[in-house]
Amino acid sequence: MNMPDAKKILVRVRVNGVAREAEVEPRTLLVEFLREHLNLTGTHIGCDTTYCGACTVILNGRTVKSCTLFAPMADGGEITTVEGLAKEGKLHPVQEAFAECHGLQCGYCTPGLLLSTMQLLKKYPKPTEAQIRKGIAGNTCRCTGYQNVFKSIRMAAAEMEKR
Amino acid sequence: MYAAPFSYFRAASLQEAVKLLQELGEDARVIAGGQSLIPLMKMRMARPAALIDINFIPGLGDIHNSKGELRFGALVRHADLEHSAAGVTVPILHDCAAGIADVQVRNQGTIGGSLAEADPSGDWGTALLALDTSVVCLGPEGERTVPLEEFIKDAYTTALTHEEIVTEVRVKAPPKGSGGAHLAFKRSAPVYPTASASVQLTLADHNTCKDARIVLGCVGLTAIRAKEAEAGLRGKPLDEKNIRTAVDAARAAADPQSDMRGSADYKRVLVGALVKRAIGIAARRARGESVDAGHEYAGR
Fold it and tell me: DSSP class of residue B192?
């Protein structure tokens, strides 16, 4: 077997509108790149097995599980994390709705759910119940039982329509 | 979890990817969406010394409709297909694409990667076998087109040589009067199905079955074409008795293994039920009806 050459490579991305870069080992997962190298710890590592969706971020307009992407694969990309949702100290309507409707308890899954909700409402501004369920099927919450999450998403959709 | 260290190469073209495969030898692997390979690497079940990233090759994610043939670039993501015109004209493709795992995985996983991985529980290997599908492979000697039946050899084993790469998946558009469905049952969105069934029927006079393809997924080392079940329908009216015969034959063709998703007996019963339901939906679609179908799981 050839001995692998683990030489570091430069990964450049725009995170929440800001150009960021770091030299990392190729095996660095996108979620570790964000948390350990860019100090953006809002994105959580849950199951680390492509199941729970706590690590969900938006990459080039689409949600991905950042535990299942090597950082170099995101090179040149545009990333939104939970830190990018609030603007000028004011929560995004999706965040407000989750707070208002108790769409979270421990908060571990919340960053992922917020970004999945962003993507869902971008595609379906007035989502049906089925679209809501399917839209967040890749996000696992072990506290709320989802009913309050659904409520939050419905409220966020209504609020965003008003604006 | 960390994958074992590897060196990373970014291919700018398919030719460069093939050249890298030649140069780097057998310890190198191609990475597309990575939704199977990365978890395997994190669990250290795969330890490639080098990865060749094809995600930056321009045009490899395009879908073309060329004279009755749908051509999917190897990098077409499941979500691209889910929202494509191809999924509207050939509903079985939409059923499959829209039900694979969850939104995030569909945004990243690719049709070419899924076939090249040849996971026995993968959806594309099953759904595409119900259609006339071929896989275009590029190697140092040039391009060859392999029918899907011959492409998938065994569980996780394809006809690809080490120096070859999947570049395109070609699907012949079904004739008029044809309808299909891919149904799968899974316990929750992100997991592989427990069993799946793909059926494509071509009807004459809305009832006589001119042609039938019946494929079973997750109940063998590869997707299984239930040819006796197909013969039970071909040239016959689509009535209750003939459907029952076909379903019994499909159940007999299944070769499931007991695992954490269910016992072999359970999977055999389940796949029979999925075939029966898929025949019904395929027939309604063949008659021009619009029917919503796909993966079934808790909460959907």
Answer: P
Closest to A52 measured CA to CA, from A31, A36, A73, A79: A31
Average confidence score pLDDT of chain B:
97
Per-residue pLDDT reduced to its tens digit, A51-64? 999 999 999 999 99
**Residues of CATH 3.30.390.50 domain(s) within chain B?**
178-295
Final residue in a domain of this structure, among A41, A57, A84: A84
CATH 3.40.50.11890 fits B7-53, yes or no: no
Q: How far is CA A128 from CA A120, A125, A133, B185, in A?
A: 11, 10, 9, 22
Closest residue of B to A57, CA-based? B104
Class of domain B178-295: alpha beta
Q: Which of A50, A63, A118, A119 to mutate to test the interface with B (most CBs of B within 10 A)?
A: A50
- Are A134 and B300 an interchain contact pair (Cβ–Cβ within 8 Å)? yes
Q: Whole-angstrom Cα distance, residue B24 to residue B51?
A: 9
Structural domain for A107, as ranges? 93-162
Cα-only R_g, chain A: 16
> Are the C-beta atoms of residues A77 and A87 closer than 8 Å to each other?
no
Which residues in chain A have their CB less than 8 angstroms from residue B27's CB? Answer: 1-2
- Please give the pLDDT value at position B298: 75
User: Which residues from A are below 8 Å from B294, CB to CB?
Assistant: none
| Interface ipTM | 0.96
Residue ranges of chain A with per-residue pLDDT less than 70:
1-6
CB A27 within 8 Å of CB B4: yes
Question: Is A58 contained in some domain?
Answer: yes
Chain A positions in Cβ-Cβ contact with residue B2 (cut-off 8 Å): 27, 29
Chain B positions with Cβ closer than 8 Å to A = 1-8, 10, 24-25, 27, 31, 34-35, 38-39, 41-42, 49-51, 53, 55, 79, 101-105, 107-108, 188-191, 297, 299-300
Task: Say how many domains are in chain A.
Answer: 2
